[in-house]
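#lab-general

N.A. 3:47 PM
ok so I finally got the sequence cleaned up, no stray characters, all 439 residues accounted for. can someone with queue access submit it? mine expired

B.Y. 3:52 PM
send it over

N.A. 3:53 PM
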Amino acid sequence: MTDDRQEATSDRAFTVLRYPDFRWFWIAEFISVLGTRIQAVAIIWQVYRLTESPLQLGLLGLFRFLPLLLFGIMGGVIADGRDRRRTLLITQVVLLLTSCALAAMTISGGISLPAIYAITFVSAAVGAVAQPTRQALIPSLVPRAALANAMTMNIFAFNVANVTGPAAGGLLIAAAGVSAAYMVDVVSFFAVIAAVLVIRPSATQVPMRLSGIAAAVEGFRFLRGSPVLLGVMSVDFVATFFGASTVLMPVFAEDILGEGAGATGLLLAAPAAGAVAGSLVMGLVRSPDRPGRGILVSVLAYGACITAFGLSTSLPMAMLFLAGSGAADAVSMALRHTVRNLMTPDALRGRIAAAHSTFAMGGPQLGEVEAGAVAALAGVRASIGAGGVLTILATLFIARRFPAIGRARIGDAVPPDDPTAPRGSGVSPADRLEPVPGD
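B.Y. 4:20 PM
back already:
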């Protein structure tokens, strides 16, 4: 009898929830991301209250990025070389403990800026392993024909949590204090722990041929040989680096709009509200045959919305443009994840996911440092507006530098077993996301 994971699925993304393992994992991920977003608001608000410094807020990004730089690729090696289910379980337990530490120190009154930075660093280091493991695990929960739908639904849940999390976090802090927000995050980790104990991924994880540094080099070699993947990740990095403005939301809310914690939560939630709309659209339509073009157009729209947000003079106007940026980012994100998963062999999923996370998460973390520094020197409006303009210019440059992005189309076949197989080695052009000759 054929496993139902091998069956084809509908073009509608929501049908992927008929696979029980993915459904439970998807629900748990939503709850966990919701708690994480509530915690993020609490950390930003607490640092701002302790320092009232945009630069100190920006340094949060540095302490989130350094672990990615130091441990990101090796996190991918761990995701490919170890049992992914067990690895994810261990990382979630450690992250739960870091959230407990934040809650305990806040309740006891012993919280300090160095402590927040230290816990942020440790959490990001553990996340450098958890993130590629999580992404590499998803393809084993659904058939390949349903993978694009699974990615779309995963992003949809992520974006819904991004809407409700910051808004709930701002309201919770205003009503019950920062410690209550940390406690909610602690509880949210039990959802993923329970789901990981329940799910039974299909046996698709391919043993690594190499280990350690050699395994990391193998991942870099594969990435270097794929101009589409490298170009798409570059676009993601520059957009999130120049467009980063999350850490400036408390400053924008108070100094520009004259509002408080509630408005900060709404500003943080607005991009995710737009992202939900963008994800819904992606869930109801077929994935485009030329996803690279969609990525480029959506990132250009994202940069335009960030520029307009920096010029906003009222809360509704700011939320409108932030929602637009979120919608554009959701479309780009869905297409990026689909491209990456369809053209990456299972044996390399963890390492390529880690490289993608380094680009996707390193961009905003470094961008927060840049945004905080520019805001301290030239003001919040200048920091955000200039970031949007630079996003547009950098995207146009990368589109010219990597023309294969715009010419690429999706193939349906499974990637080759040999992840380093060169072109012309017998691998069918349909096995990869290939540039269209002469287009």
